[in-house]
Amino acid sequence: MQRIGVFVCHCGSNIAATVDVEKVVEIIRQEPGVVHAEDYQYMCSEVGQAKIADAIHEKGLTGIVVCSCSPRMHETTFRKAAERAGLNPYMVEIANIREHCSWIHKDVEEATKKAVILARAAIAKVNLNAPLKPGESRVTKRALIIGGGIAGIQTALDIADAGYEVDIVEKTPSIGGRMSQLDKTFPTLDCSACILTPKMVEASAHEKITIYTYSEVEKVTGFVGDFTVDIRKKARSVDMDKCTGCGVCQEKCPSKKAPSEFNRGLSNRSAIYTPFAQAIPNVPVIDREHCLKFQKGKCGVCAKVCQAGAIDYEQKDEIVTEKYGAIVVATGFDVIKLDNYDEYAYSQSKDVITSLELERIMNAAGPTKGHLERLSDGKAPREMVFIQCVGSRCADDRGKSYCSKICCMYTAKHAMLIRDKYPDVNVTVFYIDVRTPGKNFDEFYRRAVEDFGVNYIKGQVGKVAPQPNGRLLVQASDLLDNRQIKMEADMVVLAAAIEPNPDVRKIATMLTASIDTNNFLTEAHAKLRPVESPTAGVFLSGVCQGPKDIPETVAQAGAAAVKAIGLLAKDKLLTNPCTAHSDELLCNGCSTCANVCPYGAITYEVRQVNDHGIREDRRLAVVNEALCQGCGACTVACPSGAMDLKGFSNRQILAEVDAICQ
Amino acid sequence: MSIETNETFRPKIVAFCCNWCSYAGADLAGSSRLSYPADVKIIRVPCSCRVNPMFILRAFEKGADGVILCGCHPGDCHYSTGNYYARRRMTLLFSMLDYIGVENGRTRVEWVSAAEGVKFSATMNEFVEKIRSLGKNVRLGDLRCRS
Amino acid sequence: MITGKKQAELIKEISGVNPLKCMKCGKCSATCPSYNEMDIKPHQFVSYVLNEDIEALMQSESLWKCLSCFACVERCPRDVKPGKLIDAARQLLIRQRGQEYLSPDEVPELLDPEIPQQLLVSAFRRYRR
Known about the structure:
With 662 residues, chain A is an alpha/beta fold. Chain A is built from 18 helices and 34 strands. In chain A, helix 1 runs parallel beside helix 5, helix 2 crosses helix 3 and helix 6 packs across helix 7.
C-alpha cells in the first residue's frame, strides 16, 4: 500500500469559488492509503511546492495526488518538485479539478462532489503507480524548415548561425514567399525586395543551409530528435549543376501564355521560367502543363538555345531521405478566393482587384511596370476605393471568423503611396474599425489621413457595380454621417482575408501536429508556448500559426529557431518512460502486437523462460523502449493480455473506472 | 432501492479522452467556461487506441450508465493510426453491447480536436441528455457490488 | 401596455435575430435600395432593438419603406439579418392593432403610384382578411 499525500489547490478563486476545497480535503483524508491531505492557495507556487516536499520528508509519502489544473499545465512542475524531494516523479498524479470541474460547473455542491470523485480516481491510480525511469534517445543535429518564405529563411539563418545544419524545403521554384511579391513594407515604406533579397542570398550562400526548391515533404516518420523525412524533388527538367542562369531559354520559349503565379495571374510567363528576376536559385523550371515539348512532343527550343546543355526533358521526380532532429513549419498563407463575393464584382470587372494584386501593380517589376493603371483599359485612375474586411470577421461560411490583422496597415500604406505618387488621385477607404496596434502603426495611419489626405469613411460597401461608362459604382454607408454614399470609382481594391496555405493540412497530418478549424496550426500553449506545436520537436514559424505581419513573423521565426536550437544542442533526450512492455510468461509470440505498432518498436526473440519451474525456449515480443511512443495500441491488440503500458496500465485505468463508478 | 424518476436521475458517465486532442479539447472547454453536466468524468489515456473493450465492460459492470470515447479526428492521430484501431474495436464492441442489451445510445465514439472546446461541451451535453432519456442502465451490472 | 423590454424580446423571438452579433459595419445600410426613404436606417434597427427602444421603431416610417428585398440579410457578414427585424417589428405592430385589416375597397385611395409593386404584394399578403 502506498502512503499517499493529497494536495488540493485553490488556484486563487479559480477552483475555490466553485469547489469547497476544505470539504474535499476533509473527505479525501478518510480515503484508505491517504496519510496526508492539505489545501493551499497556489500549489504551483514555490511555497506550494515546498509543502509537497515537506510532506514527502515528514510523512514518508510514496505517492502524490495534486488536485489542481490540467496535467497539460503543471504535471511537469509537480513531478519536478517531487523529484527534488527524492520521490520518483512518476509517482505523481494530477486530478484535474479546474478545467474539468470548477470552470464548467456552477453549483458548489455538485462541483465539490465531482472534485472528490476525480481525486479518488487519481488516488486509485497512484496506488498502482510504479517508479519509472526515462530512457535516452539520440538527437540528429539537423533541422528541417518547411516553407521558404521570410519565416522559413529567418528560422534557417538563425539555426545555421548557431552551427547546425538546416534544410529548407520550398514548394515553388524559388525561395522568397509572399514577401517577395510585396512592393513596399509598412510602417517604414522600405522596399520589400531590398530587405528580403539579401536574406535570400545569405541563406543560399550559407554553408550550413541546403535549399530544396520545387520540392515537397512527402513522408515523415520518427519522433522528436530523430525524424526521418522523404522529400520529393519535383522534376525541374533543368540540371541545376549545369544551368548558368543566363535566361536565354525563357526569352526564346515560344509558349508564353502561362499565367504568372508571381504576378497573381495579371501577366503571363513562358513555360520555362523563374518566378522573378531575383529568384534563388536562379535556375528555371519547365512547367510541363504549358510546355509544347511535353504537351505536343515537338519544340525543344530551350534545349537548342541552352549553351550549358542543362535542359533535361527526361528528368524524373527524385526522393531524398534525410534525418532531422527538429522540424519547423513555416508554410505561410494565401489570400482567400473571392468567388462568393459577387457584390464586389471581383470576377466581373478587371478593375476590382485584391490588395496583393495592387502590390504587384505598384511594383516596378510587376505587370504594369509599376504604373498605377486600370487593367481593363490601361487608363490612369482618378478615383480609387479601398474596401476593408472582405471575408475577414465573418460569421457566415463565405469568409473567415478572424481578423486578418495586416489589412488595415497595408491599406494605409497603399493609400499613402498612391497619394504620394499620384496626388491627383482621390483615395477613399471604407472601414469597419481601423486596427493599428504596433510600434509606429497608428502614427502611420494618421499620417495617411492628415498628411496625405486619404479619405477614411466608417462604413462598409454594400455593392460595386460596373457601369456602362466603364467606371464602377460603389454604394456604401457612412455610419458617422448617417448617409448612404453612391460614388463612381475607377478602381476598387479589396482587402481580402488571408488564410493558411491549403497544403498545411496535409503537412500537419504527416507531422501529427494539431490544427484548428481555420487550418492554423495549434501552439502547445496559447500564451506560454506560442512557437511550439504540441507535438514534440515540431515548431511553428510565421502565419501558419496565425495572422501576423513581417516584424512579428521575423520575431516568431527567431523564437522558433531558438526552440529548435535548444533541442539540437542536446546530445540525448530523455524519452517518455510510459512505454509498452510484455509479460514473458503470458506472451505467446503471436505477432499481433507487432502488426499494430505504428513505430516498428516490437520485435521477437527466442528466449529461455522459467514458467513455474518449467524451463523452455519461447518466442517472445520485445519492445524497443527508444522507439515505443506509448500509444498503447498493442496492449489492446494482445490476445493473451501480456502487453501492458507503463504509467497507463490496465489495472490503473480499471482502478480509475472503478473509482468513478463507485 | 428507490425508483428514480427522470428529474432526479443523475447518470454516471465515463469519458475516455486521448491526451493529445480530446483531453486538450476538454481543457479548452474548461478554459472557455463552456459548461456540461458534472455527471461526466474524464479518464485520460495516451491515445483512443489504449482503451481496451475491457475498460468499457468494467464501467458498465460497476454501474456506469454511459461510456463515451473521444479521440483525434481521423488522420490527425498523434500516433498516426491509433484512432483507426479504436474506431474498429468500438464498432465491434458497441454492436455486441447492443446485442446483449446495452443500447447503442449508451456508447459513443466522438472525434474532438484540441481546438474544439465548443464541440466537446456540446457533445457532452447531448450525450448526457441521451443517457437521461434512456434512464438507468440495468444490464451488465454486477449484482455483487450493489447494496 | 407591454414594455420596451418585452417588445424587444418579442421582436428577437419572431425574427430569430441576435442583435448582439452585430459588429456595426453598416453593410446593411450600404446595400439597402430604399435607404434614402427611411428615417431609421437599416443598421439602426439593430441598435434600436438592442436598446429596447421599440416604440420609436414602431412609429418609424422605415417599417413601411422596407421592400423586404432582404439584400441586407444576404450581405450581412455577421448573420444578423436586419431585414428580419423590420419584418418582425411590422408583425408586432399589426398584432397590436388587432383586427385592423384592410378591406379591398380601401385600397385604391391609399395607393401611391410610387409604391414598388413588391411592397404592394407583400402588404396585401399581410393585410388581407
